[in-house]
Each structure stands twice: as C-alpha cells, then as structure tokens.
Q: What sequence folds into this?
C-alpha cells in the first residue's frame, strides 16, 4: 500500500483539491511531498543545480512578475545538512511576466532559462552568476527554434551537450512534441529535431528528462485516456539517430488518476525521484518524491534463458563439465596451500603486533593522525580541514577523527587543508592516507610562494568553469585571501602548445581573469589581484604526451607580497 503523506491538500484558495488518496496500491512504495517547498500554487518542472539547490517554476503565484495569471516564475529552495528544504524564494533576475522555465546548468555558475517572450525574446537564454546575483549573458542561437504553445518543458543533459525540449513547432504530430537540439559551439545549438512518431502522439508530450547515459527518456503524456490526466512514461533510444525509440511504457510508481509531470532523479545516493502531481489536468501541482525507476538499456540486460537454442544449451552443458573438472583440481590445490597459508598467517599476526607496539611506543604519537607542520620552522600549526565531493558538496571538519569517519563513505574527491598565514593545500584522500611519516608541510604565504590550482578546471577551449568542484576550490581561495588581508597575488594562466599561439595566450589570460572576477565578486579587493597569460610558452611538462599537456594547462597563484 502506498504511504501518501498529507493526502488532502487544498490548493489555490480552495478551488483545487489534490486527491492523492486515489493512488493505485503499490507495495513498498512511499510517495511524499517535498516538505517545505510546496505552496498553494502550481509547482512544476524542477531542475537540480550543481550545488544541490532545487530550481523550479511556480505558476499563478500573486508574487510572480505577471501576477496571479503568470504561468511561471523561477523559484528556488536549498537543502540544509539535515536534508530539510528551505522556504522557496522567487528569483527575480531569472523571471519575466511570461512563462519562465529553468532548463539546466552548463557549468556551476551558468544557468539556462526558457522565456515565453514577455520581457525577453522567446527562446532559451543564458545567465551567469556573479556574487549572489544572476546576470543576463545572451540568448542561445538555436536555428529555427519556435514554440507555438503556452507550455514549455526541457532539460539539459548531464554532459551539457544535448537539450531535450517539449514544444509545439515544425513537424509536430499533435500538440506539444519532444525535440532534441545539440551543442555546436559556445552559445550555438542545432535546430530542434522532432524525435518521431513512436514517442510523439496526437496528444501532449511534456517535461522530458534524459538518463545520464542518454539512453532512457522519461516524459509525460496524456495518451492513456480512460479519464486520466497525464502519466509518466519511459522509452529507450535504440541507435544514434534520435528518432528510433521503443514503444513508451508507463512507470510502475508515481502515476495516478491525476496528472504527473516533471519526473527526474533528485538524489542518486538514495535513488529518489522528484515529480509534480495534481488531481487533474487543470489542477495545481505539488512536488513529490518517490523511488527512482532506473531503466536498464536492453543491450545491458542478460539474455532470457528461455530464449536459448538447443545448441546453446549443449554448449553450456559441455562448459559446465569443464568447469567442474577445473574446480575439483583447484580444490585439491587449495588444500595443499592451506597448511602453508596457516603458517604464514601466524607469522603475519606476530609481525603486525610488533609493528603496532613500535608505532605506539613514542609518547604523544597518535595512530592515523597527520601532523601539520610549518615547512620553515617544522613546528605544528593550527589548521582547518574541508572535504570536497565530485558534485561540489563540502564538509568542514572540527578534527581529524571526524575526517577518518567521513573518508569511509568514499564520496569525497579532495581534502583541503588551510591555516592562516600559509598557502592552502589540496590532496586526494589516498595521498592524505599515505603521507610520508604522517606529516604534512605547509608553506608560509610569503612573497615568491606559489601553488598550481589543479582542481580549478575549465571547459575545453573556453574560460567557463567546468564543474562544481572548481567553485568550491575558488570559495576556499576567497576564504584564504580574506583571512590574509595584507597579501597580494598574481594569477598566471598557461595552456599547452597545441593550436594558435596568439589564441592560446588570449585564452590563458581570460582564464586568469575569470578567476579574478569570481574572487572580486565574492569580496576580495580588485587591487590585490594581478593577472597574466603566458599561453604555451612556459611548460612544466612534456607537450608530446597527453599527460604532459594536461599538466601544462593550468593556472598558478603566486604570492607577490
């Protein structure tokens, strides 16, 4: 039986009642409202930001730019360490008096938003975040893009190179159809291509979402009939044409007699999905969570044993006989080895005990604790430790005992160690655990000291930050510069030697400038940061190998005084 919480919710001043109690009974599945996020208005089309914030549209809210008749402004909510969501806040800089829908995040400080045509031209537009505000950058060039509908849905793939759209446009089979557009170059995309008549119907296909491998497409459609609203379906892409799909099938969970839309993966760790649901196609929606239905592509599914031929069965029986013989031989060998292993095991236990005794024999030493020392004086210094994950999540730690427990989860990609007056250090967890003599040396932040900002990555050929980890490392540099107010630094950009030297020099300067821009917009004085771009003229590794070229594509931070 589905456990539906808050089953009677009054929306829009009592005009619409969400009848969640009519969900079909599905054993073991729990559908819950996204606590703290839903209002009395129409929540729909959620998109998860790289830092974990949830952006979505709220329709017909009196605080919207267009008032209570506005189909949707952009709103957002943040999740705290306990997993609770904050009260939604409208984002005025991303909203117009028309329908506004977040499509995705090309990088941690950029966002794509669809605008209906009121205040901004109809289409998808890019914004960049400087400080705490979103600033308009440009419209995307998408060829013959046009939407003849008041409704829009669309999401950016996880690699940032594919847009799946729900629009009423050229070649539609009904109302809103599903289309695909591909990244050509920065700011330029291909004209939308209809996905074909297998997934598109005479009805409405809306709010598409692609799996990470871009093989499974989730979307909503009202083709079921039977007095139902829209249901959530999935279909598998069978080749590289983007027009060859399997027949859509409804999800087992989430669908009801009402309208379900905007399905997407919310939390990969807990395998949870978020979607919107309402009583019927004209009701207001709430955001709900349910177990995410991950569909395995057919090429990864094991062959059904019932489909095997007689010849295959005979081959399997022959192989089984060979395996049994080999297994018998192996068992005999293992018996012979058992005595040797037991003898070695006893010796190893004695050696291990001796090592432990030796390791604790020195007064004041603690097993597993790394000593952080001043590289000049070799004296211990107070320090802070921050863990950074691949998705840009972070954890500030009080002591190293907490660090040992946190590293057991294997979700952290780097350890950031900082101390006032010293150059911060970033290490991989395995590097931390294998530090020689359990000692980490910190370099004083004096003139001439430098650090390579390895974890600040850029999209190839651009000055756009590539991931959320880059932003977290930048935030650590902001803290470092604020704690050491008298320091002045120089940021030096470098590339490999491939391509036009003039363009490489310009790119290296733009990347250094991009970092300076982020630092200054977060409170570091502009006068404290100088920049230079050297292109490929100052390599630190061999450009004839890919490993060397990766090392040469870098930004260095130097202390000037």
A:
């Amino acid at each position: 039986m589905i456990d539906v919480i808050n089953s009677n919710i009054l929306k829009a001043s009592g005009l619409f009642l969400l009848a969640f109690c009519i969900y079909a009974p599905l054993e073991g599945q729990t559908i819950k409202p996204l606590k703290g996020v839903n209002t009395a208005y129409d929540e729909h089309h959620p998109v998860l930001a790289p830092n974990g914030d949830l952006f979505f549209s709220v329709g017909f809210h009196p605080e919207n730019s267009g008032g209570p008749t506005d189909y949707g402004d952009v709103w957002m909510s943040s999740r705290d360490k306990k997993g609770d969501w904050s009260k939604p806040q409208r984002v005025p800089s991303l909203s117009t008096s028309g329908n506004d829908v977040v499509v995705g995040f090309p990088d941690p400080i950029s966002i794509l938003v669809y605008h209906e045509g009121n205040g901004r031209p109809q289409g998808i537009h890019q914004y960049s975040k400087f400080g705490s505000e979103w600033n308009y950058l440009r419209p995307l060039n998408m060829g013959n893009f046009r939407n003849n509908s008041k409704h829009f849905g669309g999401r950016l793939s996880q690699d940032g190179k594919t847009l799946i759209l729900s629009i009423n446009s050229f070649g539609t089979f009904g109302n809103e159809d599903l289309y695909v557009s591909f990244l050509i170059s920065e700011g330029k995309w291909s004209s939308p291509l209809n996905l074909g008549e297998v997934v598109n119907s005479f009805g409405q296909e809306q709010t598409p979402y692609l799996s990470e491998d871009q093989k499974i497409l989730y979307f909503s459609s009202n083709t079921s009939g039977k007095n139902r609203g829209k249901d959530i379906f999935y279909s598998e892409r069978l080749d590289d044409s983007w027009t060859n799909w399997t027949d859509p099938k409804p999800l087992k969970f989430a669908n009801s007699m009402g309208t379900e839309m905007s399905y997407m993966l919310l939390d990969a760790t807990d395998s949870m999905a978020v979607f919107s649901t309402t009583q019927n196609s004209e009701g207001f929606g709430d955001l709900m969570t349910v177990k995410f239905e991950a569909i395995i592509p057919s090429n990864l599914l094991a062959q059904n044993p019932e489909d095997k031929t007689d010849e295959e069965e005979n081959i399997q029986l022959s192989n089984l006989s060979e395996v049994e013989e080999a297994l018998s031989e192996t068992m005999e060998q293992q018996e012979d080895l058992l005595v040797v292993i037991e003898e070695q095991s006893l010796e190893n236990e004695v050696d291990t005990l001796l090592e432990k005794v030796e390791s604790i024999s020195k007064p004041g030493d603690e097993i597993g604790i790394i000593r952080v020392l001043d590289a000049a004086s070799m004296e211990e210094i107070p320090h802070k430790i921050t863990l950074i994950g691949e998705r840009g999540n972070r954890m500030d730690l009080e002591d190293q005992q907490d660090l040992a427990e946190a590293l057991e989860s294997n979700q952290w990609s780097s350890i950031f160690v900082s101390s006032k007056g010293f150059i911060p250090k970033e290490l991989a967890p395995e590097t931390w655990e294998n530090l020689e003599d359990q000692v980490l040396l910190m370099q004083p932040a004096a003139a001439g000291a430098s650090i390579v900002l390895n974890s600040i990555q850029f999209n190839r050929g651009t000055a756009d930050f590539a991931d959320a980890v880059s932003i977290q490392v930048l935030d650590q540099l902001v803290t470092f510069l604020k704690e050491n107010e008298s320091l002045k630094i120089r940021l030096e950009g470098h590339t490999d030697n491939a391509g036009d030297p003039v363009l490489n020099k310009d790119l290296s300067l733009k990347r250094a400038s991009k970092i300076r821009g982020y630092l200054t917009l977060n409170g570091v004085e502009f006068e404290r940061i100088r920049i230079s771009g050297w292109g490929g003229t100052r390599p630190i590794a061999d450009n004839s190998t890919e490993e060397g070229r990766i090392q040469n594509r870098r930004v260095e931070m130097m202390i000037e005084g």
